[in-house]
Protein 1
Amino acid sequence: MNFTARKASRKWAGGTFRRIGAAMVTVAAGALLIGMPADPAAAKASRAPWDGLFSHLEPRGRAKPRHAVVPLPKPRPPEAPSAEREDTETDQASPEREKASDPAKENGKDGTREQAAPAKPAPQPSVCRLALTEDIAIAPSIPDIRGAGGCGGEDLVRLEAVVLPDKRRVSVKPAAILRCTMASAIAGWIRSDMAPLAERLGSTISELDNFDSFECRGRNRIVGAKLSEHGRANALDVRGFRLADGSLISLTDRTVPRQLRETVLHSLCARFSTVLGPSSDWYHEDHIHLDLMERRGNYRICQWDVLDPLPQKAPLLPAERPEEAPPREVADKPDDGKGKPKAEKEKAEKDAAEKSDADKPEAEKSEEAEPPREEKPATKKRRQNRRS
C-alpha cells in the first residue's frame, strides 16, 4: 500500500488531513512548554529522560603527558685519556664498536632499546659428514645447490683426494662435486678394492681419472630428457686410474688384461646401484658410469661387457688345412665296385674322348661339325602356283 500526504488530500476532501496535521503540531509544542521548568537553575538541576542517551559519545579529556627523565652522563674522570687520543682510536675502531658506542643506533625512535632478532641456529652436520673425516678423504663441504627442475642437492662436498690407510693420497682429477654419500662410496671403493689391486700389480694407485661429476643436464645430454643422476650430484664417470710408476689403466681398453677388468667390474657392481659401460649403450663406450640411484626393491643395474682385444691383422686367405685332416684322394668315395675313385674315372673318360677325336679324319670332323640341314614341307599355296 502506497500512502503519502499528497495522496491523502485526494482521499479526504475539504482539507481534513491538513487540519489534523496542524492540530498535532500544536499539541506537541504545548507539551514541551509545560514540561520545561521556568527557573534556569532548576532546569540545569533537573534532567530529562533523554539527556543521557548520547553521553558515551562525548569526548573525554586527555591524560597529562608523562615526561621521561633521561639521566645525564657522568662527568669525565681525570685519569681518562685525552680527547685527541680518543678520536684516533675511534677512527680505527671496528663497525661493531662504533655501533656499541652510539646509543642512537641501539635505541629506537622513542628512546627504548631495540631487541635484536634471534640468530638462526647453524645446521648440524649429517652423519655422513661426521664420518667422512680427513683420515678418509679430503672433501670440504660446499653450500647446497638448488637449480631449476630439481637440479642440485644438499650435503654436498668437493672430493679432492682419497686418503689410503697408509696416509698416502689418491688425487681425484679434476675434483668431483658429489653428495656426501656418493663421495663416501667412492672413497671406500678406492681404499678397499683399488689400492690392494694396484699392490698386486706391483705398484700403488696415485690418481683417479674423473670424466664427469655434477652437471645440471638430462640423461645422456638429451634436451628434454629425464634429469640425470649427474644433475643430482649423485653420479661419477670414471675412465681409469694411474699408478705410481706413471702407467694409466683404462677400464674400457681392450688391451688391458681381461682378468683385471673383470675384477674391477665385480667390485663396482657390488658397491653401486648403477654401473654402465661398453655395450650398455653407445653413450658409455669410453667410460664407466657409477651412481647410487634408489629404485624400488633395491633394484640394481650392472651393464658392462668386458670385450676381448681385436685381432692384429684380419685374415685375407682361408685357413690352412689341418694336419689331422684326411687326404683329399682318400676322402672321395669310390663310385664303382673296382675300387677306382670317381674323379679318376671321369678323368680317364675325358682323355679317351680327346684321343678318339684326334684319330678321326678331317672330313668326318667337318661333317660332325656342320649341323644337318632340315627340309621344310611344301605348303598348299606353293602347290597351287605350280599347277597354274
Protein 2
Amino acid sequence: MLAIRGRRRRRGAEGEHSTRVGVGRTAGGTTQWDWSVDRTHPGRQAVRVTELNQADISAEIAAKHAEYDAAREKGMPPLDSPLIDFAPYRSSVLRHPTKNPKLVDPETIELASPTFGHRDVAAVESDLTIQHAGEPLGERMVVAGRVLDGEGRPVAHQLVEVWQANSAGRYIHQRDQHPAPLDPNFTGAGRCITDAQGNYRFTTIKPGAYPWKNHVNAWRPAHIHFSLFGNAFTQRLVTQMYFPGDPLFPLDPIYQSIPDRAARDRLVAAYDHELSSPEWSLGYRWDIVLTGPKATWIEPEGSDA
C-alpha cells in the first residue's frame, strides 16, 4: 500500500524533478517513501524507502504534545478526546474524517442495522474463562466498574461488550497472524447488562501486548476493548481500557493521540484488592463516563488496533 501525501518540484543542473512523498507498509512496519521522477528524462526515477522506527514516532509524539501544551498556555481548554489527524498514528492520517458528520434518521438506519443477538444476554456471558471445555492460560482477573453519565448518575440496563487478545497477545482473527500461540480455551469476547446502579463485571484473562505495523518494532500496550450501545444501535461507543504501569504507554501513538494527560489517565484501570479473590483472581476497577468534561475517550470509527 502506498498513500500519496504530497508533491513537490525542484529544478537543478540535471533538469526538472517531481517528487512524491508517501507512506506505505512492509512486513516490518510503516515506511516513508520518496519517489523522484526526472521530467527531463522520463524513464529515470529513484525510490528511497526509509523505515520508521520508534525514535521517529516518539519525536513526532513529543512535537504534537508540545504544540498542545503551548496552546493550553494560551488559554485553549483541555481536550478529552484524541486528535483524529494524529500523524504518529499512521493510519489515522489516511482514514480520519475530513468532512462534517451527516445527519441521518435513526429509525431508518435501524430498519437494516444489526441487532444485539438472537437471545437475551445470559449471566454466564460475562465470564470469558468458562466458554470452552478447558481453562484458558494466563492471569485470571475480574474487571468491574460503573457506567455513568456526565453528572455521575448510573446508566442502567446498558449493553456492555468486551473483546481482547489472549494472554500471549493473539486475537482469534484471520488478520492476526503474528507468531504467538492461540489458546483453544479462550475466544476473548463477552457481554453483560449493567444493573440498576450502572454496575458491570467481567471475569477474564489479562491480555498480552502485541505487535502492529505502525512502525518498526511497534507494540500495543495490553488493553481490553469496550463497546456500549445506549438504547439504540446508532448510539454505539467504543473505547479501550489499559492496565496501570504499562511501560509501553509512552511509546504507543494510539494512547498518546490523546494530548491531555488527565484524559489519558482515565483510560487506565486501578488495581482493587477488594475485587481480588484468594488463590483465584486479581481485580481491576474502571468506571466509564459517557459525557461531560471527564468523559472516557471514545475511539474514532474504523480504528484498527
Protein 3
Amino acid sequence: MKAPVRNAQAFPPARLINAIGLRISNDQSPRFRTSPAGSGRFPSLTPARRFEFVTLSVRPGSSPAPQYNSPVAEIKVDHARTLAKVHIFSELTESELAFLAQRAVARRFSPGDTVFSEGEPCVGMVVVESGHIRVFKSSAGGREQVLSIEGPGSSVAELPVFDGGNYPASVSAIDEATLLLVSKQDFQALCMAHPQVALKVLRVVGARLRRLVGIIEELSFTTVRHRLASFLLRQARAQGKRTIDGVEVALPVTNQELASQIGTVRELVSRNLSRFQSEGFLKINGRNVTILDLKALEAELQSAQ
C-alpha cells in the first residue's frame, strides 16, 4: 500500500479527487482529531492546535477508496449508520456517508453538560448519535425557554453553518449522550457536491421556524394552565401508556425543566398540576401523571382558547 499523500503539490489540483468527487486543495480539508477520552465540549478549532490538514487523494483510474494516515481516521461504522438516519443525509451513498463518518468528531456528554452556548462561534453542525439534548434560550436573569428536545438521528445548528453567524441558541445534554460534529468545511463541501442536501436543510429549517412561531403564539396568547394542558396532551399522544385508570405520561425530571419547556416558572407548574389533580383531570404519582380522561382535558384546552 502506498503511503498517503500529505503534500497537495504532489499532484496538480485538477487531478486530486476525493471520496465524494470534490477537488481538494492543501488548505481546505481539515480533519479533526478527538481527544483520547472523547468527552466534553466540542473543541474551539484552530489550525495551530486542534486539527491538521490532510489531502485525501487518489490518482485517476486507481481505486476510489481514499487512504488515510492515522488510526484516528478509521471509519466508525456506527457513526455512518447514525448519519444515515439523519433526514438531510438520507439519500447519500455508503461511501459518502463513510466520508462524513470518517471526518466527524465524536464526543460523550453527561446529563447537564453544555454542548455549546448561544453566541459562541459556530464550528459545525451537531448530530445526535445516542441520548437526548435540549435546545434553549436564556435570559439575563437566568430564565430559560426550551425550543426543542432532540434525540437520536436529529441534527442541530445547520443554519449558522450556512450564514456564518454564531450559534443562535444553547444546547445541553439531558441524559448520557454521544454527539457527532460535522465541520462547516465538510458540510459545505458536501452541499456543493449534493445540492439536494441543502434543499433538505431548507425544509428542516422551515419546519423549525413553524414550530418557533407556534411557541411564540402560545407564550403570547395563552395562560400557563393552557400550555400545561397542551404539553400533557402532546406527551400522551407521543408516548402515553394506556392503563386501567387512563393514559400515563412521564414528566420531565423536575418541575423547573417542565417550566422551561412551557415558558413559565416552577411555582406555577406545581400550582397548576395540583389544580388539575384536585379537579379530577389527572392523578400524580412522583414524576408520572395519569390523565384520567383525555377528552375532558381536550375540552378544557378548547374552552381556554
Protein 4
Amino acid sequence: MDGAGRPARSKRSQGSQADLKAAAIGALVLLREWLGRRRVRAARPSLEREPPRGLIAWIENHFPRRAGIAATVLILLASTGYGVVKGGHFDAFCEALSDSRNALANSAGFRITAVAINGRKQLSQDEVLAIGGVNGRSSLLFLDAAAVRDRLKANSWIADATVLKLYPGRLQIDIVERTAFALWQENGKLSVIADDGAVLEPPVPGPYVARRFLSLPLVVGKGAETRARDFLALLARYPQVQSVTKAAILVGERRWNLRTKDGLDIRLPENDVGNALAALSKLDREERLFSKDIVAVDMRLPDRLVVQLSDEAAKAREELFKDKKSKKKAGEA
C-alpha cells in the first residue's frame, strides 16, 4: 500500500494505462483525418454527364452493355474477311491455316513417314500423290482420306481407289488403273482413250503422242471413241484385214471406212459389216486384193464391189485397151 492507505500500483499496470491512452489518441487523430478527406471530396465540383439523345439514347436503352465492343470486333473481322476474299487471297489464307495445323500435328508425331502405292502402271508415285493432294507438309492426323480418294477417282486414268491411314505415320493407297485401249483423232487432235471411250491423255494438236502409245490402234472421227471397242473387236476376227489396217474412220457417226498402211481406202457398208470384212479377207487371200494397184474399194452397195484404180494403173489399163483395139483393127484389115 502507499502512504495514503491506497493499494500500491505496480509499474506494469502504470505502463499498460499509458499504452491505452496513446492508442486512443492515435485513433482520434486518424478519425479526424478521414473526416477531413471526406469534406474535401464533397467540396469538389462534379462533372455531370448530359443525358444522351436520339439514336444514342435508343441504343443504350435497347442494347446490353459492351455490345458496342462486340459490334466493333465483328465489323473488324468482317472487313478482314471481305478484304481476303475480294483480294483473291482466300485460297492462300486457307492453305496457310492448313499448313499451320499440319505443322502442329507433324511436330506431335503424326508426320507421314512411309507411303505405299499399289496398282499403278502408267502413273508414277509422285503423280499419284500430286493427284491426291498429298505433299511433304501433309500430316496423317488431318489428312482427309475420303477427299483424297475422290480426287484420285476424278482422274481419268484411275477407275477406283482406296486410301488407308495407318497411325502414326503410314499411308497406303490402292488404285485400279484404266488401260489405254486406242488412239482417237478428231479435228486434228490426238487423244489416248480407254475401252469405254474415256479420254486418258488430254488431246494434243498434231500427230504427237507418247512413244509407249504408238502401237495402239487408231480411230478417227466424231463419236469414234465410244464405238471403237465394238468395231475393233469385230475387226480382230479378221486378222488378214486387221494386219494391214492403219486407221478406222467413222463417217457421219454411221459407218466405218478403213485406211490401210499402203493408203488404200475401204468403204464399208453401214450394215452387215462382218460379212463385208469376211469378203475382203477372202478376196485378199485368193486375189491378193491389197497388193494390187488400187486406191479405193467401195463395198457400200450390197450387190456389188467397186474398185478404183490408181492414176497410173488407170492410164496403163487405158493404153492396154488401145493396143488391143488397134491390133484387132489391124487383124480385121
